[in-house]
Specification:
Keywords: 4Fe-4S, Electron transport, Iron, Iron-sulfur, Metal-binding, Repeat, Transport. InterPro entries: 4Fe4S_Fe-S-bd, 4Fe4S_Fe_S_CS, FTHF_cligase-like_sf, Helical_ferredxn, LUD_dom, LutB/LldF, LutB_C, NagB/RpiA_transferase-like. Residues 308-378 form the 4Fe-4S ferredoxin-type domain. By secondary structure, the chain is of the alpha/beta class. The protein has 23 helices and twelve strands. Strand 5 and strand 6 form a beta hairpin.
Length: 476
Amino acid sequence: MPAFPEAARAALGDSQLRHNLAHATATIRARRREVVAEVDEWEELRLAGAAVKDAALLRLDEHLVRLEAELTARGVTVHWARDAAEACAIVAGVAEAHAITEVVKVKSMATQEIGLDEALAARGVTAWETDLAELIVQLGDDLPSHILVPAIHRNRAEIREIFVRAMGDAGRPAPAGLTDEPARLAEAARLHLREKFLRARMAVSGANFAVAESGTLVVVESEGNGRMCLTLPEILVSVVGIEKVVPTFTDLDVLLQLLPRSSTGERMNPYTSTWSGLTPGDGPREAHVVLLDNGRTRALADELGRQALRCIRCSACLNVCPVYERTGGHAYGSVYPGPIGAILNPLLRGVGTDEQVDSLPYASSLCGACFDACPVRIDIPGVLVELRAQVVDARRGTARHAAEAVTMRAAAATLASGRRLGLAQRGAGLLRRVTRRSVFSWLPWPGSRWTGARDLPAPAREPFRAWWRRTGGGRR
């Protein structure tokens, strides 16, 4: 993917995309605002959620060890994956050990993060997405554009066209005469997926939370596809980021009050599935849990940035972000778009090695709306500023940094001397009088890289010092 400015420029030229995003995010914002207003102690609940996550991260090693012990005691095989390659190899190994060629999947950010679908396909295993929006993205040979609503960039006419064109190649075709009525589109998806649910021997899920004290995994969803995946197949593999662990069910209680209101604008999720190991005669006969690092310990080591690991993937920050609303998720070049993606990707992957990743901390106006919306109070603007500093530090001494360094040294030399500053002020004022312009719309290169997207404020006709001398210290 190109760096954010280039990708965003292309997105801004798509008027249909901007219309789809504006309509969808405005709808979600309004619903969230209504249900949040019902909770008198909402700010106290946000503080509690942040405290729960911070406490869990502070003793993450202890909670993970206990989670492993509890899961193992309940018949689950626990794997540890340092990176995406290890995690994909573990899941593919389970499939190959049982001669499985297709799996059904619950919507999972972690499996998208590691590129699991592509890794399984390379080893002859087809992964079918069962979340409606993920199905749209998969059938459309597209990429997710939102954490909660991956197909938010599509309208219903586009979805109908995708179903009619692509469903038959992936299984049961779309019904004849399919319209773009939402109920009919949902029915077509349900009929298409039902045969996959009934046929699949293996399912792959993520987890919204993992409770250490009981070895319980939790999946929160709205369509029932998660419940089908978690109960029908013989084998279940769950890929879980290590930051998802919470110590107790009491901690979970706080987060389950915050998540549905912040994500879908609901008081409670339609489906909240919990499972603690294997139960003979009920559900899968074999279960695996892959505990995924993939940069999370790197983020944990960042004193300011580690708060990003509080994230409960609600997407509230995306829905209020003026930048995301105009560019969409694809411009961020990652499975984690929007404000949280702008900090999470650099924290997980590190800065200074990839231009696309380094561009993300600048994909923000720093308006602060994301912090106000975040249910666990992640100071996204503060982390963005810190990451910008890290990007600059990582580029010191490089050719890319040379022009900026020369400019800053020239500015420092000018500002350090009263005489030089005075000369610069008089020169700027003279330039304004000569050009007779109140605003300079451009500067020659390399200054044009700044003025190409910004107005350049006009210098004063009379420098402050000259005014001070002329008026006798401000007295008339």
